[in-house]
Please model this.
Amino acid sequence: MIAIVTDSTACITHAEAAELGVVVVPMSYTLAGGQSFSEGCMEEDDTAEVQVADGIADVRTSQASANSFFNTFRWLRRADYEILCITISSKLSGTYNNAVQAARRMQGHHIQVVDSLCACSGLYLLIREASRMIGEGSGLSSTARQILRLRERVRTCFSVDDLAPLRRGGRLGAVRTGVSAMLNIKPILELRDGAVVHTGISRGKIDQCNKLVAFCEGASGRIAVESFLGDDAAARLSIKLAREDREVERRRVGPVLGAHLGRGCVGVTYIEPLKQ
Model:
């Protein structure tokens, strides 16, 4: 038996974790008043997200710890599971390195740790594919190798209302100051090779939506539309993306990632089809 382990930035629900055979190792966040919370699976309401957004300048987040991974790995190995661990991009968090440390403490037996080079919906889509492969009889090493190849085809593009949260977290390279604050200009960002890069601008919500739709021009199959307290933008985007050869899926961004993206963030993620 193979269990999939991931961190909470996959933003999956309890039902999805059960369906896909996933164990979620939590990250955590601390609000301005000093209250700390563990982020596990996505809850049914957005109370946590609103709390984070309302005090975003003072929110602090913590990566999933090596001890948390070690305890999860030990529990699963005692139950005789092999383990495929897929984490958020190592360029966005130390979580991958913590998982690798934990696997080494377990002497690496029957454990494979994969750096997704993704976050949120990209991580979720890779987990879905891994679960499908395992269900079809793929072994641990084979599945890990296939996910390493597949991650090169994950495409993510998103836009935020305010670059300040990304700047504070040190997860954004050089973008001119105030680009999202003047003239209703909103930055267009991508995840490339596991890092956030600035690729353009949009002027207002309609242009923002159109640019995200254009990013998906060659996409078919499952497309995830993700948002952090940006339901209206996500709804408009989902309608524009609808096509017979697509399955458009709305997904929420959890509080830990939301603390670095800010209220109103909206994006798209898909796995690029293989070229014929």
Notes: The domain at 2-151 is CATH 3.40.50.10170 (Rossmann fold).
